[in-house]
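Entry:
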Amino acid sequence: MVAFILASFGHGILSCFSSISSSRQGGARLSMDKFELTLEPRTVIGKKVKHLRTQGLVPVAICGKGVTPENYVTDARIFTKVYQRAGKNGLIELQTPTGVLNAFIRQIQRHPLSNVWLHVDFHVVDMRTPITAAITVVAVGENKLTAEGIVNINTPTIHVRALPGDMPQNIEVDISDITEYNTPIHVSDLKLGDKVEVLAPPEEPVLSINLVTIAAEDEEPTEEADTPDGMTINDPGKATEGTEDA
């Protein structure tokens, strides 16, 4: 059974990234890649699934509104490549024996020492129904101000609402548009197009380039007067002889 499942993934690793698309609106770029993952039915459950993991397979479960929960497996190598690119905000086409399902990664479990995938949950979505998600902000581009400053991302994630097919993986903000230190780009400056609704307050700062300031060095402390051997200081200005243990 395991050998048959492995054979069915033979061509999947070459097509896990079926196409790549992106769009730029103003100073922000929406990163939207398309991914595919092949799932095969799984009848093994409970503790016996560890044998699947030793064969390079990942136990998978799917759920969603109007979707019958099912158990599957997928190739661990392919899933790793997809997850590295898609994360939890990348829409993934799940190729199942009964048809194609569109889903996002809902939850992952990974062994803390070996990094072996233990289990993956997918949430199947309706492509006609908008969803809400927290999208990571990523700074891109170059700016001469970074020679003496650092990029400060004030808002690491921004909540947006869109159809699953229009949901961006990341919001890339171009720092080359910044002309002054400590002058933030606000949410209102992000032009993400009419397909993505930004739910964050318009006045919320997204990122800025802050000037790095070096604190002035403190004056060197005055050198304390040497004390004779066998003397300890108990109170300011008062020295007493030290005593040796008997």
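The first strand starts at residue 19 and ends at 25.
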